[in-house]
Design a protein that fits this description.
The complex is a heterodimer. Chain A is an alpha/beta fold. Chain A has two domains: 3-43 and 184-376, no CATH class; 49-168, abc type-2 transporter like domain (abc type-2 transporter like fold, 3-Layer(aba) Sandwich), CATH 3.40.1710.10. Chain A is built from 15 helices and five strands. Chain A has helices spanning 3-19, 21-41, 60-70, 84-92, 106-111, 127-157, 161-168, 185-215, 218-222, 228-255, 266-290, 294-312, 324-332, 335-348, 352-376, and strands at 49-55, 75-81, 98-102, 116-123, 171-178. A four-stranded mixed β-sheet of chain A has the order 2-1-3-4, with helices on both faces. The radius of gyration of chain A is 29 Å and the shape is elongated. Chain B has two domains: 8-53 and 186-385, no CATH class; 60-152, abc type-2 transporter like domain (abc type-2 transporter like fold). A four-stranded mixed β-sheet of chain B has the order 2-1-3-4. The radius of gyration of chain B is 29 Å and the shape is elongated.
Chain lengths: 383, 386
């Protein structure tokens, strides 16, 4: 293996990349654009759920109750509906995500000290959203109910309102959100670095390498004195470099304009990101060796990286909540380890002590991809 | 053609169209990697992802640090139960932070000393929930359930004198009855399997036409097509038609071989309607693909450009996170994503039994997007050829 040949291969590849101006700029524009779009398009925050209310009672008391939902930042009040019949098309057309139905005699019953029963219709099309909505409805209703009962107890038994409340609800729950006080944005941004690195560099590398194969220019390599190791290293290194630069740019965007906290060590983050960049570019390398045309390389890449990333990377849900088969799949993809690393470094201030296992997994992954690339690449084609 | 449609010309035109479409179909089915990819995406992927995903709070690992150790504290802790929570035994004296740091649990419930004493004496008793907010959605759901659990926790022995003689019914309690429509058991598989089908349809309908066009351009075979008696429209439309046929075929396989038998997905609307809507959607996506092909000079560029189009469309059209939570400017932008309308239409047909009365709007939106993009693409292509 000779350094000069590797360098020659690398500089040839570099020229090829940079001379295609559009391709070269896309290599950096695509990650940035995706980061930007996902930053605003991906929100873990559940709010502005379109809400409709049917008030069969129409009294001060029922309006007061409805107002608890209307004023909540989780809901976006779309208006009162005349009756349940109106709700059908609204829910079916997705115009409304939840509808509260307050029965007639709501005020009368409560004033008489009798229990009342409201109904909430929830659109179950997106189950996790429906579960969250259900939680909000339960919580808001619970608060309203407690208020009514406490007023009643305080009036009938002559105790103070706060005393009545305490007796009705002896246990108070306090919550502390750890690591992400904003409960949404901070934990999203480091993950976006993972997503973007997972989808963009593999495709870049795959199309960059396979085009030599499709155009037939690869025969020059077959007939040259360059060994396969030299060829692969030289060919591959510009793509690792681009991916790594992209990782750093994304980091700068995350901690700069996007304002994510960065609590861990920068050097450790750089090391991990370099290994991850090698992994993602390595996926592209292996794809390029398996696929013979650029079309198939692109489709293959999307299936290997883009499709699993939303589910198996820990982007939307913890890997622990997947079923057994899903957990196995998640462990086979490098994204999951890098998610743990970025979350650990950005939000928890974790270092090598906690995350070495993940870094080791990424190293194994990167080496395995290189090895696969080495064995898949044949200078002499099988007859 | 310009002289007006006579019957012979029309027959000739159709014959050429058919020949071209056959050529495109052959090209799709002869590429083994594409064929395998379509098979995988429309069957195995839908099956695997539909089965394994759960975005709801489910079996969340929770540790309890019970410093009271009374029967009341144990009673409260035991209410944090399946299917939402899974109690993990915390070591004695463990502060619980290590467990949260390492991600072993997502929640630690702290019950302070003298908890039972306070409750029985009618003094305020506070317990604390420490949540790992790195999974915000799940953390929020955990908090919501925690609130409901503690809010309704009135121990039999600890009513502190407010226990009304007639039982709890005599208090003006408001109970809410939550009815989840369309998917009452919150079966995540119904949602995910459709989502993955839509994803597969989107990827292939954008990428394949774009690549097919760019390939002709890169190889120079497009010149051959242009000197033949074919109009630019015919050249482009034949590719779109072939992709539509192929994707529609795989969609049918997916519905009958995966969605129905494995997920028992109800089809509350009309399946025929679903296939018509899907065909319109594929046409709209192909228009986007063709548009890419007119701005890309080579396949490598086209690959990156399609990623730039496919990734936002799939990630930001409302499948994974709700459009309502996005900033307003982006909500407006999503209206230009055909997938957003296709999501409304297909979930509407499968789960809500939506008919033409509701579907006309998403279909019209998709058609408008697809139509205008295609016209623009053909126009650009024609100019480039001239």
């Amino acid at each position: 293996m000779e350094i000069s040949r590797i360098a020659a291969m690398a500089s040839k590849e570099w020229l090829e990349i940079t001379r295609d101006r559009l391709f070269f700029s896309l290599a950096f524009i695509v990650p940035l654009m995706l980061m930007l779009i996902f930053r605003f398009g991906f929100s873990f925050d559940v709010r502005n759920i379109p809400l409709a209310v049917v008030d069969y009672d129409g009294t001060a008391c029922s309006r007061d109750y409805a107002y608890r939902f209307i004023s909540s930042r989780y809901f976006d009040f779309k208006g009162y509906a005349q009756g349940e019949r109106q709700l059908g098309p609204l829910l079916a057309g997705g115009k409304v995500g939840v509808a509260i139905i307050i029965p007639a005699n709501f005020q009368r019953d409560l004033a008489a000290g009798l229990p009342a029963r409201v109904q909430a219709l929830i659109d179950g099309t997106f189950p996790s959203r429906a579960q969250t909505i259900k939680g909000f409805v339960l919580a808001i209703n619970g608060a309203a109910s407690l208020q009514r009962m406490a007023e009643n107890v305080s009036r009938t038994r002559g105790v103070s309102l706060s005393m009545a409340r305490r007796q009705l609800q002896p246990v108070r729950l306090e919550v502390r959100y750890l690591f992400d006080q904003s409960v949404s944005d901070w934990s999203l941004i480091p993950r976006l670095i993972m997503v973007v690195l997972m989808v963009s560099p593999p495709l870049l590398t795959a199309v960059g390498i396979v085009r030599e194969k499709e155009s037939g220019a690869i025969y020059n390599i077959y007939s040259s004195t360059v060994s396969r190791g030299e060829f692969l290293l030289g060919k591959f290194s510009p793509y690792i470099a681009i991916s790594f630069v992209n990782a750093m740019v994304l980091w700068a965007v995350a901690v700069g304009p996007f304002g994510a906290p960065f609590r861990g060590g920068l050097f450790f983050f750089i090391a991990c990101s370099f290994v991850f960049a090698a992994c993602t570019a390595g996926i592209g390398l292996v794809v390029s060796l398996l696929a013979s045309t650029q079309v198939s390389a692109i489709v293959f890449c999307l299936i290997l990286t883009f499709v699993p990333v939303s589910v198996y990377s820990g982007l939307l849900m913890p890997v622990a909540s997947l079923d057994a088969a899903g957990r196995i799949q998640a462990h086979l993809i490098p994204a999951m380890y890098y998610t743990d690393i970025v979350i650990g470094i950005f939000l928890k201030g974790a270092g090598v002590g906690v995350l070495w296992g993940r870094l080791a997994a990424l190293l194994v992954y990167a080496s395995a991809l290189m090895a696969a690339g080495y064995f898949l690449f044949r200078k002499r084609r099988a007859a | 053609m310009r002289n007006g449609p006579s019957r012979r010309r029309a027959a000739l035109w159709l014959g050429r169209m058919r020949a071209l479409i056959m050529k495109e179909l052959l090209q799709i089915f002869r590429d083994r990697v594409i064929l395998f990819s379509m098979l995988y995406m429309f069957t195995f992927n839908v099956f695997l992802l539909g089965r394994s995903v759960n975005m709801q709070l489910y079996h969340a690992a929770a540790a309890v640090r019970d410093e009271d150790g009374s029967s009341l504290s144990r009673e409260l802790a035991s209410r944090f139960r399946q299917p939402y929570f899974r109690l993990v035994r915390a070591r004695e004296g463990h502060k619980g932070l290590g467990l949260l740091d390492s991600g072993k649990v997502m929640m630690v419930l702290d019950i302070p000393p003298k908890f039972e004493e306070s409750v029985l004496a009618g003094r305020p008793a506070r317990i604390q929930m420490r949540l790992d907010a790195t999974y915000p959605l799940q953390a929020l759901q955990a908090y919501n359930y925690g609130r409901v659990i503690t809010g309704g926790f009135i121990p039999e022995s600890g009513r502190g004198g407010v226990s009304p003689p007639e039982g709890p019914g005599a208090l003006p309690a408001i109970t809410s009855e939550e009815r989840v429509l369309y998917n009452p058991n919150l079966n995540e598989g119904w949602f995910m399997s459709i989502a993955e089908l839509l994803e597969a349809v989107t990827i292939f309908s954008i990428v394949l036409p774009a690549m097919a066009m760019v390939k002709e351009k890169e190889r120079g075979t497009v010149e051959q097509l242009l000197v033949s008696p074919l109009s630019p429209f015919q050249v482009m439309f034949s590719k779109v038609a072939a992709v539509t046929a192929a994707v529609l075929g795989w969609t049918t396989i997916c519905v009958f071989a995966v969605l129905k038998p494995f997920f028992h997905l109800p089809v509350r609307g009309s399946l025929a309607l679903f296939f018509i809507v899907t065909a319109i959607y594929i046409l709209a996506c192909s228009g986007l693909g063709l548009f890419i092909s007119t701005i890309a000079g080579n396949m490598a560029q086209a690959g990156l450009q399609s990623l730039l189009l496919v990734a936002p469309i799939i990630m930001v059209s409302g499948l994974w996170t709700p459009v309502d939570a996005m900033p307003h400017w982006l909500q407006v932008l999503t209206l230009f994503s055909p997938l957003r309308h296709y999501i409304d239409a297909s979930y509407g047909i499968f789960l809500k039994g939506a008919g033409p009365g509701i579907l006309w709007q998403p279909v019209l939106d998709m058609a408008a997007i697809g139509g205008s993009v295609s016209v623009f693409a053909v126009w650009r292509f024609r100019r480039q050829c001239a």
